[in-house]
Amino acid sequence: MAGKPKLYYFNGRGRMESIRWLLAAAGVEFEEKFVETPEDLDKLRNDGYLLFQQVPMVEIDGMKLVQTRAILNYIAAKHNLYGKDMKERALIDMYSEGMADLYEMILLLPLCPPDQKGAKMTLIKERTANRYFPAFEKVLKSHGQDYLVGNRLSKADIYLVELLYTVEEIDPSLLANFPLLKALKSRISNLPTVKKFLQPGSQRKPPLDEKALEQAKKIFRI
Questions:
Q1: Tens digits of per-residue pLDDT, 132-185?
Q2: Which of 18, 60, 86, 88 has the fewest C-beta atoms lying within 10 Å of its C-beta?
Q3: What is the rounded distance in angstroms from the CA atom of residue 6 to the CA atom of residue 42?
Q4: CA distance 103 to 161
């Protein structure tokens, strides 16, 4: 029997958090090997663990996988969270890419120069309220089903709910006008595996604070 997946990253959300969410939702236990210093990262590179010299990296099923989306797709396919056919996978990918666009804006916000942060935050809120959330609300309304694709749980639902929680940390009012998104968030949050992940003491990471940001900058030599 294969061991637990091992996740290599720093002790923060970053580009690994969506992977943690998906594994947790799939009911998969995983281990974390935290990169804590620049030297830890150098060792992974020098030992040939990182194909493109970057983390996240996940050891799973005898592979050392890098590139967040490739990792997510493998996990989703393995655990039946990637649709039943090519058309469903195309929709799941399309929705997930839209989510990734918004997620990327939020992810990079802490690295933004202080004099640009206000404008970036305004743009994030505007895109959330006028582009991304209306699109996903429309998808749910169009078919009246409980999940985004094929009336069954997929990686797109999990990614979206992670994003909803993240956006609420920025401004809870942004979700107010989207009843179907709120219902999806509640539905997914009450799945036993997700409910467990949302409890204190789980491997879910808190929002990035100044201390964690400084540690990340040091590790990645930013």
A1: 999 999 999 999 999 999 999 999 999 999 999 999 999 999 999 999 999 999
A2: 86
A3: 18
A4: 12
- CA distances to 13, 16, 54, 161 from 8, rounded to whole Å, are 12, 9, 10, 24
Q: What pLDDT digit, counting tens, does each position of 45-64 carry?
A: 999 999 999 999 999 999 99
Residue (of 6, 128, 126, 139) closest to 60 by Cα position: 6
- DSSP symbol at 82: S
For 93, other C-beta atoms within 10 Å of its C-beta total 18
User: What integer is the mean pLDDT of 113-120?
Assistant: 94
**Spatial distance between the Cα atoms of 32 and 10, rounded to a whole number of angstroms:** 9
φ/ψ of 47, rounded to 5, equals -85, 0
Question: At residue 80, what are phi and psi to the nearest 5 degrees?
Answer: 55, 40
In angstroms and rounded to an integer, the radius of gyration of the C-alpha atoms of the chain is 18
* Ordered alpha helix ranges (H), 49-85: 68-78
SS3 at position 112: coil
